[in-house]
Write a structure and sequence with these properties.
It is elongated, with a radius of gyration of 39 Å. The longest helix has 67 residues. With 457 residues, the protein is α+β, with helices and mostly antiparallel strands. Helix 1 runs antiparallel to helix 2. Helices cover 66% and strands 8% of the residues.
């Protein structure tokens, strides 16, 4: 379990290989003929190398605090990097989509005779150079520009929302790992108590005042606590691996064991801050993009215009050159099956985006209210467990164990009292974990666009 300062010991084989390698290097060569001195130096160097290796391995690994882990997650998580690039791509597309189409340049020869391909044989043979520029319907470019701009803003808000979610997931895994670590320590303490109970049962059994069943029940209790500790160690390793994934690390980090205390915004303030939550702002920008799409659909009722000009070079002797100018219009005069349908579809998508925004707003408020209520209940429950239930359970176990040693109570009563101590010890840890997790959820729900994540400003 990698919560405490665990020294990384040097493997004996590696240490021996290092020592022998250094010794061989010092014993070979011309210095070998100088007598026993090189061997003494080689031996001294081997001992020095082993001492330095042990000293380096005994150096404690730095503990990673939650605040440090949050900084690493924000800057190194691959999903956040991907969202940043997606938002950057949409910003570039918002610039490109509002531009006019590229002009078209044409080059060709007209009315060339096939008998000799001579441009001087007929007066109507012309080499022509032309340019053509298309203009979309009135208002389409500005509407597309607004739509792309709101889509880019929605992508940016989605990135901030994902950033806050990553922080919440990191905190959730962090508290779960701390709970598993501290619960394993509590189970280890209860295992020591269970061994005391087992020792008392054996003493009474040897004195003929208890049955073999009491000894076996006490041994079962010790074995059950071992199994529980193994499960908690496995949960801790899984949560630490989850933290390593969030931090984009191949190896799980070493965590600081102190419980981080998160500040909880009062509900009256938090409810008003929901309106500026990044996920809600992203939904609002998507709604605005859908409204801009309605403008794009309306612009389809206007004609698109194409302006063209061409210069013709006539090689027939005495013939002038030619200039051609054209103006093309699209004719949206049958809109029932095209423009009307597109406009109705755009209006339906606008209403869908609006309802999604309203539904997400209601969901955020409801979830915040539930989290605030749960936080209040967990605070009261944790206070009762720490101040009343756990001290009473410990005192009851001590009295029960004394009574069992004196022969006034049976083994079942002692084991039940011991189980209550473990129950309330784990309940205190679980309430602490749940309380901090709910505080992290409230921080996520009250995330501010300008603040980045949580309640940090």
């Amino acid at each position: 379990m990698e919560f405490d300062n665990c020294p990384e010991t040097v493997h004996p084989r590696a240490r021996d290989a290092l020592s022998c390698s250094v010794a061989r290097r010092l014993s070979f060569g011309r210095a070998r003929t100088a007598g026993p001195c090189p061997r003494v130096l080689a031996t001294m160097f081997c001992f020095a190398a082993i001492w330095f290796a042990n000293a380096a391995s005994a150096a404690p690994r730095a503990h990673l605090s939650l605040s440090q882990a949050e900084i690493l997650a924000v800057h190194g998580n691959p999903s956040l990097k991907g969202l940043r690039q997606a938002a950057l791509a949409l910003r570039h597309e918002a610039v490109a989509v509002g531009q006019l189409p590229d002009p078209q340049l044409s080059l060709g020869a007209e009315n060339v005779p096939l008998n000799n391909f001579s441009m001087r044989q007929q007066q109507m043979s012309v080499v022509q150079f032309g340019v053509k520029q298309s203009f979309p319907p009135w208002g389409e470019l500005s509407a597309r520009r607004r739509k792309a701009r709101y889509a880019a803003r929605a992508a940016i808000e989605t990135g901030y929302e994902r950033r806050a979610e990553i922080i919440f997931l990191l905190r959730e895994a962090w508290f779960a790992a701390l709970y598993a670590h501290k619960a394993a320590a509590a189970v280890a303490r209860e295992e020591r108590l269970a061994r005391e109970t087992l020792a008392a049962a054996r003493a009474r059994y040897r004195a003929g005042r208890a049955s073999l069943a009491d000894v076996l029940r006490a041994k079962l209790a010790v074995a059950a606590l071992r199994n529980r500790a193994d499960g908690l160690h496995a949960s801790s390793a899984a949560e630490r691996a989850r933290i390593g994934q969030i931090l984009a690390r191949s190896q799980p980090p070493v965590l600081a064991t102190a419980w981080p205390v998160l500040h909880v915004t009062p509900f009256a303030t938090g409810k008003s801050r929901v309106d500026r939550q990044p996920a809600l702002l992203a939904a609002r920008d998507k709604w605005r993009a859908a409204r801009a799409a309605v403008g794009v659909a309306k612009s389809a009722y206007w004609p698109a215009i194409t302006v063209s000009a061409a210069y013709g070079k006539d090689f027939f002797p005495g013939s002038p050159n030619w200039l051609s100018v054209g103006l093309d219009f699209s004719l949206p005069i049958f809109p029932a099956e095209r423009q009307d349908q597109g406009l109705d579809a755009a209006r339906a998508r606008k209403l869908e985006a609006r309802y999604r925004y309203e539904d997400h707003s209601l969901a955020l408020v409801r979830r915040l209210q539930s989290a605030e209520s749960l936080h209040t209940a967990l605070t009261r429950e944790l206070s009762r467990t720490e101040n009343s239930l756990l001290p009473t359970a410990r005192a009851a176990f001590a009295a029960t164990l004394d009574a069992y040693a004196a022969g006034r109570l049976g083994m079942n009563a002692a084991l039940a009292a011991q189980g209550r101590v473990l129950k309330y010890a784990l309940l205190r840890l679980r309430d602490t974990k749940d309380l901090e997790t709910v505080a992290a959820e409230i921080a996520w729900l009250t995330t501010q666009r300008s603040g980045g994540h949580g309640n940090d400003q």
